[in-house]
Amino acid sequence: MTDSVSAKPDDSALVRVRGLTTVLNGKKVFDALDMDIPRGKITAIMGPSGTGKTTLLKHITGQMRGDAGEVWVDGHSVSKLSREKLFELRERIGYLFQNSALLTDFDVFENVAFPLRQHTELPEVLIRNIVLTKLQAVGLRGAAALMPSELSGGMARRVALARAIVFDPMLILYDEPFVGLDPIALNQVLKLIRTLNQTLGITSVLVAHELEAIKQVADHIYLIANGKVVAQGDPRTIADDGSPWTRQFFGGEADGPVPFQYPAGDYATALGFPRRGA
Amino acid sequence: MSQRPSYAVGTGLFIVLGFATLGYLATQTTSVVNTSRGPTYTVEAHFANIGQLKARAPVKVAGVRVGQVQSITLDAGKETADVKLAIDQRYDKIPEDTVATIFTSGLLGDQYIGLQYGSSKKTLAEGGTLSLTRPAQQLEEMLGKFFGAGGAADNLSGSYTVKARFTNIGALSVGAPVKMAGVAIGSVQSVQADPVKLDAEVSLSIDKKYSQIPDDSAAAVFTSGLIGTQYVAIQPGGSPDMLKDGDELVLTQSALQIEDLIGKFLVSGSPSDKKPADGDNKH
Amino acid sequence: MSLSMSRDNIVIRSLEQIGNCGLFLLRLLSAVPQSLRHYRETVRQLWFVGAMSLIIIMVCGLFVGMVLGLQLYDVLSIFGGTSATGTVVAIAIYRELGPVVTALLFAGRAGTSVTAEIGLMRATDQIAAMEMMAVDPIAYVAVPRFLAGMIAMPLLTCVFCAMGIFGGHLVGVTWLGIDNGTFWSNMTATVEVGKDVINGVLWKSLVFGTVVSLIAVFQGYTTPPTSEGVAYATTRTVVASSIAILALDFVLTAFLM
C-alpha cells in the first residue's frame, strides 16, 4: 500500500498528472496521484477493476475535474481551461470509447465525417477524401455505407478509431480497446494502435487488462490501485519488481493486496453465532 | 448521405402542409369568410332596441347577405342605438323607404338585420339613414306574453290543498310553483300516479289569502321559458262558488311538448284556449 | 445531473424536478444561438418528431371529429339544433380538443421517443463522444429536438383540427344528413379567427409544444444512463407532460378568454 512510486519530472511528458485527488460518492478514487505520459510513446495504464482508470482518462480530457491537484496536457492545465479552450484541446485528442459510441443515427461514413462537418467548412470532395483515407487505414473503406447496428464489435471499434484520428490528433486515449474482441479482431486493433503510433508518432494511452496484448505494444506500464501508482516500468520486467501488487495482478492471484472478501463485518456475528469467549 | 435530401424534402412538405392547413382553418372555417371584401358604402339605422345584435352581424335582403354591421353605438343623448351598416357596393339600389328589422335566425340563433325594400324610386346614398326600423323582438318578451312571467313562490303562512288530475305532468316535480296570472300562489305538494285511473294526481298547496278562486278554474302544466322548469298555472273560471280545502280541479290541461306549444302559438296566436284533459276528467 | 431518487418527500422531489427543468431550459436557451449552426439537425429532428407523427395525428383527429359530430348531433337534436353541429365541433376542436389531444398524442409519440433516444445516447456514450469531439451535446442533441418539438406542435395541431372538422363533416353531413351549406355557414358565422384559431390553436399548441419538448429532452438528458433509467424517464415524460398539458390548458384558457 505504501509502494507509491513518485513520478520523475520529465519535460518531454505530454500529459502530466500532479497530486490529483478525486472523491466520488464519498470514495477516494485518486489520492495524490502523480503520472507522466511521454510524447510519442504508448503508455498502458492497468489496475484492478474499479480503480478509476476510465475516470483518469476523463480527467485528462476535462470531462471530470479533480478535487485537488492538476492535470497538464501539452502545457495546459485542463481544469483551468475555459470551455472554448477545452474544446480546442479536445479537437487534438482522440478518444476511443469502450463501447465505440458510434452515432446510431448515421452510417459509418457520416460517423467518421462528423467531426469534420462540425468543425470545418471543407468542401464535400475533401471531406470524402479524408474520410475514405481514414477508413482505408482501419481497413473498412468498403463498409462506409453500413449503419453502426450492422457492424461487429471489432468493426465498430475500428470505425471509432477512424473517427478518433480524423483530425490527426497528438494524443489518443484508448479505453479498454480489446474488451469483447475475438483474437483476430484483437490483433487487428493491436496492429492499428502500433501503426498509428509508429507512422504518425501519436502519443497513445491504453487502458486495458490484457497483459499479453499490452506487452506487444506498450513502452511503459503504470499499475494503479487504491488511488495511487503502485508500480510502473517496462512491460517485460514490471512483473518481476517484487511488489505484492504486481505479483497479485500479473500473477492473477485471487487474494492478496486486493482482497477476495469485500470489506464486511465479522462473519460469525453475521451468521448469528455468539462470539468466542462471550 | 443519400437520406439527407429525402428528409429535408419531407420536412419541407410537412411545414408547408401545416401552414396551408392553418391558412385553411383561419380563412375558410371562421367568420373571416363572411367578411366583406371589395368596396362597401355605409348607411345608418336607429333602433330602439338592438337585442343581441353584434358588430359584423350580417345584413340581409330577402335572406341574401348584402353586407354587415359595421359598428353599434348609443345615440348621444337618446335612448336609441345608432347602427352603421356596411353594404356591398354592388347592392347600391336600396330604396330610401326600406324597413330595417332585427331578426333572429332560428329560435336560438344569432341576430341579423333584414332589409325589406320599400317602393320609393330614390335610393339610399353613402351615409344615408334608414328611417324605418323595427327593434329586436326579445324572445323573453314574446314568451312572457304567452306564459305570464312569475316570481318564486312566497313563504306560505297558511294554506289549503286542492287536487288536480293530469294525464301527463311532463317534468313537474314536488315543490314546483302554482301560479295564477303569473303570480305564485302556492306550490305542488305531492305528485302521485293513480294505479286505477292511470293518470297523475297532483296535490296543490295554495296560500289562504288566495281563497277567492272559482271552483270551475282550470289547472295547466306549463313550462317557464323555453327549456325551464315546469309549473302549474291556475286559470280562473266564472263560477260564483269558491275552491275549498280538499276540492278537486276538474278542468286540467296536461303538459305539452315544446314543439306543440310553439306550433300552437304560431298557428293560433292565442295562448289562452282552455281545453279539458282527456279521460276521466271530462265533464 | 443525476437525479436524487432517495428523497422520499414527493413534494420536495417534484419541486426539485421543476427547478432542474427550469435551469435546463436556461441551458437550452443559451445554447440556441450555437445550435443554429446545426440547423440541419433541427430539420432532421423536425422530420422525426413532426412529419413522422402526422399519420397518428390525422387518424386521431378524424375520429375525434367523427365522435364529436355523432354526440353533438344526438344532443342537439333534442333542441332541434342539429344545424349547430358544425359550429360546436369547430369550437370544441379549436379551443380545447385540438391543442390538448394533439399535445397528449405528441407526448406519447414523439416525447417518449426523444427521451428514450437521448437516454440511450447517454447510455452508449454517444453524448460523451460528442463532448470528446468538441461538439456541445446540448447544442447538437438537445436544442434541435427542443426546437423541432416547438415548431412541430402548432403545425400538427392545425392538421389535427382540419381532420377533426373533416370528421365532423363526414358524420354530420354525409351520414346524418345535416345540410352541407348550413354546416359551413353556421360554423363560419360563429367561429372567430382571433378567439378560436389564434388563441386556441396557435398559442396553446405553441406553449404545449414547448413544455412537452422541454420535459422530453430534460428527462432524457438527466436520467441515469442505464436501461432502468431510460425506462423510468420515458414513463416520467408521459406522466409529467400530461399533467403539465392539462394544468397549463386551464391556466391558458383562463388567460386567453
Give your account of this protein's structure.
The complex is a heterotrimer of chains A (278), B (283) and C (257). Helices cover 33% and strands 23% of the residues of chain A. Chain A is built from nine helices and ten strands. In chain A, the strands form two sheets. Chain A has a six-stranded mixed beta sheet with strand order 6-7-8-3-9-10. A four-stranded antiparallel beta sheet of chain A has the order 2-1-4-5, with helices on one face. Chain A is globular. The two termini of chain A are 34 Å apart. Residues 1-10 of chain A have low confidence and may be disordered. With 283 residues, chain B is of the alpha/beta class. An eight-stranded mixed beta sheet of chain B has the order 7-1-4-3-2-6-5-8, with no helix packed on it. In chain B, strands 15-9-12-11-10-14-13-16 form an eight-stranded mixed beta sheet, with no helix packed on it. Chain B is elongated. The relative contact order of chain B is 0.11. The model of chain B is unreliable at 148-156 and 269-283 (pLDDT under 50). Chain C has 257 residues and is an all-alpha fold. Helices cover 84% and strands 0% of the residues of chain C. Chains B and C meet through helix 1 of B and helix 2, helix 6, helix 7 and helix 8 of C.
The proportion of residues in beta strands of chain C is: under 5%
The count of strands of chain C amounts to 0
List the strand order in the largest sheet of chain B.
Answer: 7-1-4-3-2-6-5-8
Assess the beta-strand content of chain B as a share of residues: 25-35%
Oligomer designation: heterotrimer
Keywords:
heterotrimer, A: 278 residues, alpha/beta, 6-stranded mixed β-sheet, 4-stranded antiparallel β-sheet, disordered N terminus, B: alpha/beta, 8-stranded mixed β-sheet, 3 helices, 16 strands, 16% helix, 35% strand
Topology, pairings included?
The complex is a heterotrimer of chains A (278), B (283) and C (257).
Chain A: E1 13-24, E2 27-38, E3 42-46, H1 53-60, E4 68-73, E5 76-77, H2 83-90, E6 93-96, H3 108-119, H4 124-137, H5 153-164, E7 171-175, H6 183-200, E8 203-207, H7 211-217, E9 220-225, E10 228-233, H8 244-251, H9 267-271
Helix pairs in contact in A: 3-4, 3-5, 4-5, 5-6
Chain B: H1 3-28, E1 40-47, E2 58-61, E3 64-74, E4 81-88, E5 99-104, E6 111-116, E7 129-130, E8 132-134, H2 139-147, E9 159-166, E10 177-180, E11 183-194, E12 199-207, E13 218-223, E14 230-235, E15 248-249, E16 251-253, H3 258-268
Parallel strand pairs in B: 1-7, 2-6, 5-8, 9-15, 10-14, 13-16
Antiparallel strand pairs in B: 1-4, 2-3, 3-4, 5-6, 9-12, 10-11, 11-12, 13-14
Chain C: H1 10-35, H2 39-50, H3 54-76, H4 85-123, H5 126-132, H6 137-175, H7 180-190, H8 193-222, H9 227-256
Helix pairs in contact in C: 1-6, 2-6, 3-4, 3-6, 4-6, 4-7, 4-8, 4-9, 6-8, 8-9
